[in-house]
């Protein structure tokens, strides 16, 4: 494989030692793929890789389940604020603005993590980045559990946020890079499904445990993630980018099964990496090139619209929203909210690779538009009638159904697919820079939504949901006009399409 190193002069060497890059158990397998030529897809025509038996999907699924511990941590961080709000504000004597700052600081930390995530994933790999991200997450939860005032509380939230920011970029990229093309959508949904599951876990456990103990429970996903990462292979596409073709072939062979023919896929990866190496390192100012502009706009646009829909604000302050709607057991209703999100994500996992990305995004955004419009109208009417009237009680139930429908629609598409598309359409040559930028834009928007949600709800609940509804309506138009279908395409085919 000496020839592979000839076009890797512009590559930076990874910072992790070779043993840490390669993994452990999977080195028992040896690659049987020794490509001698280019596949049709690599030459610019559409070619499908050799069909894989169902058993060949198992290794990629197991690897996905291991890294899913990161998104579970992500979701637990997101869901923690709602069940902990009453206890934290009471025990530490916090004002509404101080607790709002606590809820939003994870977004500040996540923005820093998003900025660092691309370079971390580039130099230390996807697995190494997740190992690094796990440490501040654990430290952050410990700081929150020990907090006696806002200093430890805020510091812990910032540390959590940094880890979550790295996780939010690295996990969808890793899953996309290891998945067979006919399972990339289904495995990609595991990321947002795990986020939703983590949030639901925080809601449910918050019913039974005080906020300090709940914070200690929050350390468990990352405590399990760190040892789990030693048992999965590194991304074959990252290994190829680092000019380690032997390790790339070994990793891919294990991911597809020892008896699978990986020749075509290895060839496609080699051609794209060779083309990337010739262009050298892409800097931030060079992203404005025409061939990069469209995928960056699409990836960033979807991730920003995902947050502008207001879902993070709804999740963060779901308890307050349900109280404002006149529902007595707001914490239990929040648990139902999380459970419905999980079920909707499971359905998406089953149908995404059959239905396609575009149609689910359109259905999801349309459903959110109608649901948010319903909730906005309900809150407007409730503001003009007696809360104790029969109509008021009926409207409370309608508002609950509307919020649940909105979460269902979000989990059906907008929660999952923007991250999947980001990982699919950004070329490998700009993935570290453009991916960090798109992730940063997502978290910056999330910060704005989280900071303003409570204030907007205090101003006008009806007006707040109406604003979110207009964003969802625009998203429908954005998807119809500009978002391409990536179902059934290899990552290399998608990149050739944009070039």
- SSE class: mainly alpha
- Roughly how many Å apart are the termini? 28 Å
* CATH architectural designation: Up-down Bundle
Poorly predicted parts: 1-52
Number of DSSP-assigned strands = 0
Mean pLDDT: 81
At CATH level 3, the topology is Growth Hormone, Chain: A
* Number of separate structural domains: 1
CATH superfamily: MFS general substrate transporter like domains
Give your account of this protein's structure.
74% of the residues lie in helices and 0% in strands. It is built from 22 helices and no strands. The chain has a single domain (59-232, 281-498), classed as Up-down Bundle (Growth Hormone, Chain: A). It has helices spanning 18-22, 58-67, 69-91, 96-123, 125-145, 150-178, 184-206, 211-217, 220-228, 236-241, 245-256, 263-279, 290-308, 311-316, 318-324, 330-355, 357-382, 390-414, 417-425, 431-459, 461-482, 491-498.
Q: How would you describe this structure in keywords?
A:
499 residues, mainly alpha, Growth Hormone, Chain: A, 22 helices, globular, disordered N terminus, transmembrane
Summarize the structure.
It contains 22 helices and no strands.
Task: Annotate the secondary structure layout.
Elements: H1 18-22, H2 58-67, H3 69-91, H4 96-123, H5 125-145, H6 150-178, H7 184-206, H8 211-217, H9 220-228, H10 236-241, H11 245-256, H12 263-279, H13 290-308, H14 311-316, H15 318-324, H16 330-355, H17 357-382, H18 390-414, H19 417-425, H20 431-459, H21 461-482, H22 491-498
